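Shipment paperwork, digital attachment
Item: protein structure file
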Amino acid sequence: MSEPIRVLIADDHPVFRDGLACLLRAAQDTELAGAAATGTEAVEMAGQAKPDVVVMDLNMPELNGIEATRRIVAESPQIAVVVLTMFEDDDSVFAALRAGARGYLLKGADQEQIRRAVRAAAAGEAIFGAELAARVLAYSALRPSAPPAVFPQLTDREREVLELVARGQSNTAIAARLYLSQKTIRNNVSNILMKLQVADRAQAIVLAREAGLGQQAAA
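Attachment content:
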């Protein structure tokens, strides 16, 4: 018999967290690796317990689920994160995918859907609720890929921030869209200005638009 799938739960609601724990204990092929009540705890416990799968809520105290997912995947790429949340808007879904989540379910999912998502994620597959799958596929098909030669001196995050700056979005709007702090965005913008060797935000926008960034209007 193969080893059970070790799962870490990250959810700030005790009743929901306990219900998931009972679900995992009841299945023969899964076991509970731990339960975190905050995003910070989730990152720490994932680093210590090294579970196979993390079931992550997005609305978490201290550190939101998007950033917690990003940190877990960056530190331990072998850990699969499945988001289980009430948020079904496109920004939340695609921010989770960009952060490295391998699955996204809504909290209305039944027990078998959750078990199937955990098994799929542990096997290296991606899984989404029926309500979201078509949107994810459409997004993947239509999303333009940025030319790799554009500003190679920037990191992927800095290029993503520059794209939004070029669309005319403020630091506050960018921070909200990417689920990052305004301080982090300010630091990214400062790094961008330095690497592009421009004096201010306006000059960076000009360079970015000349390179083809920022063509889509800000939402």
